[in-house]
């Protein structure tokens, strides 16, 4: 984009100047509306989420068999919730704001199998594809116990098929691990951001890791190209996939059950705020969709992005969605939050979800590192940098009185609020790597 065009765009959208200056900022969405009004624009509904949830239940016996770590949860991939009172107190002091209500984290960082939120969408889409192939080949019937898929015969069948994906690291991890386990040939196109240990782990499982020196968009494009002329190769399209989105969305109903068990109330007087780290948008978009279906207008979803990669904020704020990238306005898309290093947002998530998202904000790498150290020290939870981006959401919400009054979030409601930080990754980070993160945080 030339300077003239950028100046023109910035005169319509003044926050662009602050974005280009890499400032930490928040933007509460004036177009946020009710579930009733916003839902039809998503193009997916309750039935789709239920279908995904049932598919995961069908696969539970297989997953149990293939991944013994899932025995305790009977094959269901789910994460715990944890209160973080010391962090809440420390943040209130650090940011000079009263964070009312209660802060919790959702530990997708510690999801089994791949240690990040991608253990939801990524694994789901591979399972769905495997099911389709096996059903069509007459090797599986919907009434079968899916444990059957854990067999030499099915493994041999899947080995004639391949899967390709582009990733900054974690999506490649989840898709690589589950695909290799089922028997597929799998190629993961990694962007320059991807951590070395993730590539090594995948190679040790027989995954074909293709390294690219460019960013996520280029890695995805290469995956798409490689799959294009091979009818037996299935490309998992992180930029557009409805199936990934639906895999993430089952989190909504499950969270509701967890809250019921923990006696955490969400209703008109007890609002729930959820802070979701955002890369291309599929993960947070899918989770937010599931949350909206589960909690309706009482849940408020807010996306967090690095100051160097604010692609979703940029796309929704300007209405240009995937028609603009952060690079086009002079932002480099270089961040330590490798899970979020995406310069151009999903082609469908922003358009589908923009009426159901309350807000967006950006955070610097320095802030993420600082919070990473605080979390380890105060709550004994170790996370990767991306996962800390959701932590300051409660600060933005608590400070923005214009937003609160527009949404009729009165003081008494704010005092009853639940602030849920979606911690999205970190559970599998090797010790030496974690020590390096902690050292950068100053601990
Ligand atoms: C991928 C990822 C996200 C965001 O998911 P998107 O679908 O890319 O928006 C957040 N946190 C971590 C750790 C991730 O790996």
UniProtKB/TrEMBL annotation:
**Which SUPFAM superfamilies does this chain map to?**
Tryptophan synthase beta subunit-like PLP-dependent enzymes
Cofactor(s) recorded in Swiss-Prot or TrEMBL:
pyridoxal 5'-phosphate
Q: Name one Pfam family in it.
A: PALP
Source superkingdom: Bacteria
- Segments passing through the bilayer: none
Q: Which residues form the Tryptophan synthase beta chain-like PALP domain?
A: 95-399
EC number(s) of the enzyme?
A: 4.3.1.18
Family of this protein:
Belongs to the serine/threonine dehydratase family. DsdA subfamily.
Name-wise, this protein is: Probable D-serine dehydratase
What organism is the protein native to? Photobacterium proteolyticum
């Amino acid at each position: 984009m030339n300077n003239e065009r950028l100046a023109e765009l910035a005169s319509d959208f003044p926050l662009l100047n602050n974005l280009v200056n890499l400032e930490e900022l928040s933007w509460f969405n004036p177009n946020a509306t009710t579930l009733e009004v916003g839902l039809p624009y998503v193009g997916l509904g309750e039935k789709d989420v239920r279908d995904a949830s049932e598919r995961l239940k069908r696969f539970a016996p297989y997953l149990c068999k293939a991944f013994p770590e899932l025995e305790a949860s009977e094959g269901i991939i789910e994460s715990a919730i944890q209160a973080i009172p010391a962090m809440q107190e420390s943040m209130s002091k650090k940011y000079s704001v009263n964070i009312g209500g209660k802060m919790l984290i959702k530990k997708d960082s510690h999801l089994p199998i791949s240690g990040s939120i991608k253990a939801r969408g990524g694994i789901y889409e591979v399972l769905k594809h495997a099911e389709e192939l096996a059903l069509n080949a007459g090797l599986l019937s919907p009434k079968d116990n899916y444990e059957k898929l854990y067999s030499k015969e099915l493994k041999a069948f899947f080995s004639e098929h391949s899967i390709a994906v582009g990733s900054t690291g974690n999506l490649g991890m989840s898709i690589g691990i589950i695909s290799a386990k089922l028997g597929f040939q799998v190629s993961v196109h990694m962007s320059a951001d991807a951590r070395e240990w993730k590539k090594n782990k995948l190679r040790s499982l027989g995954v074909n890791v293709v390294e690219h020196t460019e960013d996520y968009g280029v890695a995805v494009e290469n995956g798409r190209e490689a799959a294009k002329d091979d009818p037996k190769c299935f490309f998992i399209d992180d930029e557009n996939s409805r199936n990934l989105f639906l895999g993430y969305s089952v989190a909504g109903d499950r969270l509701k059950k967890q809250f019921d068990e923990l006696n955490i109330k969400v209703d008109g007087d007890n609002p729930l705020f959820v802070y979701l780290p955002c890369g291309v948008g599929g993960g947070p978009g899918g989770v937010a969709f599931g949350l909206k279906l589960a909690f309706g207008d009482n849940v408020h979803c807010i996306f967090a992005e690095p100051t160097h990669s604010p692609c979703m904020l940029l796309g929704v704020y300007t209405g240009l969605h995937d028609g603009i990238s952060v690079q086009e306005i002079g932002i480099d898309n270089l961040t330590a939050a490798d899970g979020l290093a995406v310069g151009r947002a999903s082609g469908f998530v922003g358009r589908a979800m923009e009426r159901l998202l309350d807000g967006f904000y950006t955070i610097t790498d320095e802030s993420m590192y600082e919070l990473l150290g605080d979390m380890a020290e105060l709550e004994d939870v170790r996370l990767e940098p991306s996962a800390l981006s959701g932590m300051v959401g409660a600060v933005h919400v608590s400070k923005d009185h214009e937003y609160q009054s527009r949404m009729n979030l009165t003081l008494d409601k704010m005092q009853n609020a639940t602030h849920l930080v979606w911690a999205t990754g970190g559970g599998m980070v090797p010790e030496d790597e974690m020590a390096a993160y902690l050292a950068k945080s100053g601990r």
